Amino acid sequence: MKKNNQHEDFTEFKGIGHKEIILFSITSMSTDYTANMNFLISRMYKVAKANDIDVSIHMDSASKIESRGKNADIILLTPELFAMLDEIQKKLPDKVVKVIDRKDYGFLNGEHVLKMALS
């Protein structure tokens, strides 16, 4: 287990080319919720930039997974969408679909979420 001052190693992801990541969530886009999602995305971008990883990261509502997911390399689902994982994988079989760990989501751990997405 890494200590608080240690960071994830992203060496294996350098040079992987551009990755389009879309985070999907329940449609309750309240101001606080949107701010938290933006903060998570901001942290993911910060880690990507620090490690020379080329990514675009967006968020959208779960109701748009089929239409917007087609444009993604990696689809991330918030923990409350876990039950939809199998269904989405069947509808978009050529896409990487993963669920964000509840703890990383709650703590807005952009470093862990980015590493999980790219792994």
Annotate the secondary structure layout:
Elements: E1 19-25, H1 31-50, E2 55-61, H2 65-69, E3 74-77, H3 85-91, E4 96-99, H4 102-106, H5 110-118
Parallel strand pairs: 1-2, 1-3, 3-4
Helix pairs in contact: 1-5
Question: If helices are DSSP runs of H or I spanning 4 or more residues, what is the number of helices?
Answer: 5
Question: What is the strand arrangement across the widest sheet?
Answer: 2-1-3-4
Number of strands: 4
**Helix coverage percent of residues?**
25-40%
Termini separation: 18 Å
SSE order, one letter for each helix or strand: EHEHEHEHH
Quote the average pLDDT. Answer: 90
Which structural class matches the secondary elements? alpha/beta
Low-confidence stretches: none
DSSP strand (E) fraction?
15-25%
Shape: globular
Using the CA coordinates, give the radius of gyration. Answer: 14 Å
What summary fits the major beta sheet? 4 strands, parallel
